[in-house]
Design goal:
alpha/beta, Rossmann fold, 2 domains, 7-stranded mixed β-sheet, 6-stranded mixed β-sheet, 8 helices, 17 strands, about 30% strand, binds S-adenosylmethionine
């Protein structure tokens, strides 16, 4: 491979035309973890915001680069950019730092010898929690806990049966509870993030479960479902994006049969009611607590 690109770096106006996308958040992308060490000439990276995930990504990218290969990595200053140069130094890489209004960008050449690469990879890898047995990975949503909004939805979910889907399944916290219901005959778990899908697959060893690495907004092959459950995302690329949750609601309505139900949780301030009322016949606020609201909507 000549060039790889991780994510959609904002400062690269002219990315290498042959660059292979390797971000786990781009469905269909190549798998960064599987790249042959020292096989890539050039890498352009929008570094993830989470410190462990960022260092894991940098370690994998550096491992894939040939000695002498070019690295161009950037991040918003407040989302890890300010620490990039130091983190690269920790891997034995000196870089030239370019500061833009909101971003830091580091340009470097991969030296012959790296340090701390395997430690960085191990710290961010998919792992099984020894106490709970749950498979998870730093960088996934609420990767080391059950999100309080998800927990609230779990406490109020009722009457699920038949064929359903979990939109934005994460590592499968919600899916595990759904599949505990015997009347559920099939559950399709969908996430934009390959690592979430992989963790969910390991956490839900159940013949009724099927898994899709896909963008819910562009799904077309789900129809006539009895139910959809979701804790919809409302951030895209680090910024709040209410349209994302609204798109999840629209797609749920399109995927359900008449009479089918959407169960969702949202932060109380998020304005989903207009979208819900337009797409569903009845919308029932089930509970508001701890800053969240649970909604049951029937098509
Ligand atoms: C708020 S988290 C909920 C995760 C899990 N269901 C839970 O309750 O813990 C939202 C999830 O949606 C995923 N996601 C974000 N945008 C998506 C999209 N366009 N299509 C599918 N999944 C998406 C994220 O990767 C994340 O796992």
């Amino acid at each position: 491979m000549n060039s790889l690109i991780f994510g959609r770096p904002p400062l690269v106006f002219d990315p290498p035309t042959d660059a292979v996308q390797v971000s786990p958040r781009v469905p269909g992308a190549a798998v960064l973890e599987d790249l042959v060490p020292e096989s890539v000439d050039q890498a352009v990276v929008l570094a993830p915001a989470g410190a462990i995930e960022r260092q894991y990504t940098l370690a994998l990218v550096l491992r894939a680069l040939k000695p002498g290969g070019r690295l161009d990595v950037m991040a918003p200053k407040t989302k890890g950019g300010a620490r990039l140069a130091k983190e690269l130094k920790g891997f034995g890489v000196d870089c030239e730092v370019v500061s833009k209004a909101h971003h830091k960008r580091c340009l470097a050449t991969r030296p012959q010898t790296l340090s701390g690469i395997e430690t960085g990879i191990a710290a961010g890898a998919l792992r099984q929690d020894p106490e709970s047995g749950i498979w998870t990975q730093p960088g996934l949503f609420a990767w080391d806990r059950v999100d309080p909004g998800t927990a609230l939805l779990i406490r109020h979910l009722e009457g699920l049966k038949g064929r359903g889907a979990d939109f934005g399944c994460g590592y499968g916290a919600l899916g595990r509870v759904v599949l505990a219901q015997e009347a559920v005959t099939e559950l399709t778990l969908i996430d934009l993030d390959r690592r979430a899908v992989e963790a969910a697959r390991r956490n839900l060893d159940d013949p009724r479960a099927r898994f899709l690495w896909a963008d819910v907004r562009t799904l077309t092959d789900l129809a006539d479902l009895d139910f959809v459950v979701a804790n919809p995302p409302f951030h895209d690329g680090g910024a709040e994006d209410r349209a994302l949750g609204q798109a999840f609601i629209d797609r749920a309505a399109k995927s359900l049969r008449t009479g089918g139900t959407l169960w969702m949780v949202a932060n109380r301030h998020l304005p989903y009611e207009t979208t819900l009322n337009a797409a569903f016949k009845t919308v029932r606020p089930v509970v508001e607590a701890e800053g969240y609201k649970i909604i049951e909507a029937k098509k």
